[in-house]
Design a protein that fits this description.
Layout (H helix, E strand, L loop, with lengths): L5 E9 L2 H9 L2 H7 L8 E5 L2 E9 L4 H17 L9 E7 L1
Antiparallel strand pairs: 1-3, 1-4, 2-3
């Protein structure tokens, strides 16, 4: 029997080759403070064949909450000395 899929929204920054190399070069102590698979930090996700860094947003998202999540992501990115030149992307993330 197939496990039901859980769909939630994810907001994040697409990780370019350059950004990926920078993130991979960070000392583990600094990286682990701001990027993890759970908690209030940033999370990495795959969408198609692209890598993103951001936050899961649940199944429903109100505009005010979306603005708060975006501000939180940008603040956490700035702690890693990452200042995006592009906007964040919101997409459905499917978990099986």
């Amino acid at each position: 029997m197939r496990t039901p899929e859980k769909i939630e929204l994810f907001m994040g920054l697409q990780v370019s080759k350059e950004l990926g190399a920078y993130l991979d070069s960070l000392p583990a102590e600094k990286r682990d403070l701001f990027i993890s698979s759970t908690g209030k930090t940033l999370t990495e996700a795959q969408y198609g064949n692209k890598r993103f860094l951001g936050k899961p947003c649940g199944q429903k998202l109100e505009f005010g909450s979306m603005q708060q999540i975006e501000a939180n992501i940008l603040t956490l990115l700035s702690k890693l000395d990452v200042y995006p030149e592009t906007s964040l992307t919101l997409f459905p993330l499917i978990h099986s």
